[in-house]
């Protein structure tokens, strides 16, 4: 049979401790001397074979351009997103409009003609019409811009055709049906109709039919593969051997067989991920580090604070201080609600390190946030401690003279607290005694960046801060190599933020009331934020794309900072207000000047992008308006509204959106308005997130992104796999008896990430 498929559609907690297993990561990830020795009696692993050798250079180049694939293992893990069956054979005389049918018939006529119209790409629109008959009736097939069809379908050819029946000009037809011609005598139409067909994520250059053929080609030549899953684990969880799962996922006898194979492959991915993370964690926990017990400096700070620590701040602070006093390096993630006091926990850790003359480096994702951190640290320390510890800022856009002064103070050990952006990672930055690395908003940085900063000291302690609450399963996957502490309680005196959605159904009076409310707050001597997803008119690339946009309509025009700054300055109630703008594209000194003016109360309304998303502390700001709120994620909106209501007055957040009720975009916005619980919203964010990379290159640094697992759907698999990985590492910390597993863990990382993680 010859097949032509023409479908268009396919384009926490931190879990159990691993401290009892203490392999060095290098031992776990070192590649065996040759692949033939990956396990007792194992064979070379065909999954590592180059696609160039398997399918030829030209096809390999297409696969790399479309999906980034280079190995056979990459291609065979390109799993179907669904299965279809062609269905029961139907006589043409029995066809009903709207039915999906499969028929066997003979081609009676075929013609291609131009319509005089053009398609969306401006090409002349051609239609190929084919008339087929099974002897009982006639059916028409319609193909658009497919003149090559005449090379395969011509008068007298018999084949099988599958599609949905429609009517055009009183004639029943199938539009772009899938078909297969019978070129061999004895071809079995019934078997063809019952076959389960995998449908793959595809592109215009690599449609699902081509992917299906390529995958079957490499599977036929693959041979045995090294299975990293231990036999006892596979038996306990009733999983298939890896090779069997690969064969069945791509050519299942039934859809149920495909689901069973998919379960095995998801289990494989979870097990490899958890083994890698737990081995990494055990390695990091085994690194010797200089103990940094707290002393007089911390006591002086605590005595000077005008408020009591919250119970969570004290508990988490005690965990951090215990880690710092240990002889092995700390690797701890502190997560907490917006305004819960994570920065104070970090400052207290810095003072413990400073007690012995050590230095702390705080890495922030933006200059605005870095400058804000420095001001907050200086204010918290007070004049005496600040003068003694000499906190300093280092960013790439500082003047050359300011950078030189900062670099000298850091190298000499004069500055025991250093705050900076990516500029801290430069080779020219040297520390006298780097004892603590603090990473703010971990998701903004990659493994390599974190490790680059750590390597400027001798096994320094690491503290990661995030104001984005992390669901337990995410913590087990993206942050499984870190101990996790959580701050849930807010400091006393914080009023809850009221959040309201202003949607397209709102009356003009209600919509206008948004800006009256901003003016009311300004008249009362308070400040407001107005957030836009774009910087300038015509900017369509910022913000979260809405699923409501159509290919024909294109992206909608986004609210931008420049336009709204002008509008608000001319608003009849805000003409006397001091209104400024702030974006990430502004020069460093300009951004800093604006933020200083905002903090000083010299700006009434700040119109900004998400540059103010995290860390910006303006206690007098009480109102936030988010334009095109549907362009942002759930957690991002939660972070944004956390910028208001941080002082004596309650906060108000108004979410303006054009998203209609019932759309996913509107559901995201409504979810934020419904609760102030960031941990609950993190789960909602996870549910709404489209299929994609949970770890991503920003977390993993390499080829360890999740391909099959979805943390909301596969929590049970991830938890079971983590328990199994713990047991394997406890019994065989260096994976000496699990060579295939050791090799698979090694392959999870690209060379740069491997080097970063093994170079302590």
Automatic annotation (TrEMBL):
A Pfam family reported for this protein in Swiss-Prot or TrEMBL: DEAD
Record-linked InterPro entries: DEAD/DEAH_box_helicase_dom (IPR011545), Helicase_ATP-bd (IPR014001), Helicase_C-like (IPR001650), NA-bd_OB-fold (IPR012340), P-loop_NTPase (IPR027417), RecG/Mfd (IPR047112), RecG_dom3_C (IPR045562), RecG_wedge (IPR033454)
Ranges where the Helicase ATP-binding domain occurs: 323-487
Annotated Helicase C-terminal domain residues: 539-687
Keywords: ATP-binding, DNA damage, DNA repair, DNA-binding, Helicase, Hydrolase, Nucleotide-binding
Domain of life: Bacteria
Biological-process GO terms, alphabetical: DNA repair
Signal peptide range in chain numbering: none
Classification via SMART domains: DEXDc, HELICc
Gene Ontology MF terms: ATP binding; DNA binding; DNA helicase activity; hydrolase activity
Residue ranges of the region described as Disordered: 1-37
Entry protein name: Probable DNA 3'-5' helicase RecG
Native organism: Agrococcus jejuensis
């Amino acid at each position: 049979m010859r097949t032509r498929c023409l479908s268009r559609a396919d384009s926490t907690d931190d879990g159990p401790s691993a401290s009892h297993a203490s392999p060095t990561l290098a031992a776990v990830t070192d590649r065996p001397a040759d692949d033939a020795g990956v396990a007792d009696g194992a064979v070379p692993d065909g999954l590592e074979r180059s696609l160039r050798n398997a399918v030829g250079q030209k096809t390999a180049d297409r696969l790399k351009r479309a999906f980034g694939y280079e190995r056979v293992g990459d291609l065979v893990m390109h799993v179907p997103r669904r299965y279809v069956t062609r269905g029961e054979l139907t006589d043409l005389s029995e066809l009903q409009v709207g039915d999906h049918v499969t028929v066997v018939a003979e081609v009676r006529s075929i013609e291609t003609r131009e319509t005089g119209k053009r398609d969306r790409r401006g090409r002349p629109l051609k239609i190929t019409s084919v008339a087929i008959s099974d002897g009982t009736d006639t059916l028409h097939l319609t193909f658009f811009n497919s003149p090559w069809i005449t090379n395969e379908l011509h008068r007298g050819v018999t084949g099988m055709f599958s599609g949905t029946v429609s009517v055009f000009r009183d004639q029943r037809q199938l539009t772009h049906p899938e078909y297969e011609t019978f070129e061999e005598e004895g071809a079995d139409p019934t078997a063809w109709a019952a076959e389960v067909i995998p449908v793959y994520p595809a592109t215009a250059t690599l449609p699902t039919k081509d992917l299906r053929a390529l995958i079957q080609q490499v599977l036929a030549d693959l041979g045995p593969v090294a299975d990293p899953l231990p036999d006892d684990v596979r038996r306990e969880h009733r999983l298939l051997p890896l090779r069997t799962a690969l064969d069945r996922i791509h050519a299942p006898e039934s859809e149920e067989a495909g689901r069973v194979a998919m379960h095995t492959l998801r289990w494989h991915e979870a097990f490899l991920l958890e083994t890698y993370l737990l081995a990494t964690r055990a390695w990091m926990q085994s690194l010797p580090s200089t103990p940094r017990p707290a002393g007089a400096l911390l006591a002086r700070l605590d005595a000077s604070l005008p408020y009591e620590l919250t119970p969570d701040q004290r508990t988490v602070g005690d965990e951090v201080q215990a880690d710092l006093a240990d002889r092995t390096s700390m690797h701890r993630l502190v997560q907490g609600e917006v305004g819960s006091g994570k920065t104070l926990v970090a400052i207290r850790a810095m003072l413990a390190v400073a007690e012995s003359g050590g230095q702390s480096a705080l890495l922030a994702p933006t200059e605005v946030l870095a400058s804000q951190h420095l001001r907050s640290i200086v204010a918290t320390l007070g004049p005496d401690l600040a003068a003694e510890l000499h906190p300093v800022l280092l960013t790439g856009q500082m003047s050359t003279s300011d950078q030189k002064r900062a670099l000298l103070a850091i190298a000499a050990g004069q500055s025991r607290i250093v705050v900076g952006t990516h500029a801290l990672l430069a080779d020219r930055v040297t520390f006298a005694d780097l004892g603590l690395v603090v990473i703010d908003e971990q998701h903004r940085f990659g493994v390599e960046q974190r490790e680059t900063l750590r390597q400027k000291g001798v096994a320094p302690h690491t503290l990661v801060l995030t104001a984005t609450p992390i669901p337990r399963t995410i913590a087990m996957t993206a942050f499984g190599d870190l101990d996790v502490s959580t701050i849930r309680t807010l400091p006393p005196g914080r009023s809850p933020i009221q959040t309201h959605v202003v949607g397209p159904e709102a009356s003009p009076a209600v919509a206008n009331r948004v800006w009256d409310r901003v003016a009311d707050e300004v008249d009362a001597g308070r400040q407001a934020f107005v957030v836009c997803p774009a910087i300038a008119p015509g900017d369509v690339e910022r913000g979260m794309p809405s699923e409501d946009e159509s290919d024909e309509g294109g992206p909608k025009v986004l609210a931008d900072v420049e336009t709204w700054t002008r509008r608000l300055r001319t608003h009849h109630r805000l003409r006397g207000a001091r209104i400024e703008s702030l974006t990430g594209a502004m020069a460093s000194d300009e951004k800093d000047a604006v933020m200083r003016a905002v903090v000083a109360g010299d700006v009434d309304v700040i119109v900004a992008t998400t540059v103010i998303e995290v860390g910006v502390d303006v206690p007098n700001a009480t109102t936030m308006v988010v334009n095109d709120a549907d362009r942002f994620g759930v957690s991002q909106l939660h972070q944004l509204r956390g910028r208001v209501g941080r002082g004596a007055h309650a906060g108000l957040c108004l979410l303006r959106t054009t998203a209609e009720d019932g759309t996913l975009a509107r559901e995201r916005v409504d979810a934020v308005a419904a609760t102030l619980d960031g941990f609950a919203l993190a789960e909602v964010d996870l549910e709404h997130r489209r299929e994609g990379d949970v770890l991503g290159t920003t977390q993993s640094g390499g080829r360890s992104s999740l391909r099959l697992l979805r943390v909301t759907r596969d929590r049970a698999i991830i938890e079971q796999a983590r328990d199994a990985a713990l047991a394997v590492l406890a019994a065989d910390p260096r994976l000496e008896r699990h060579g295939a597993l050791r090799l698979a863990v090694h392959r999870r990382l690209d060379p740069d990430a491997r080097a970063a993680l093994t170079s302590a």
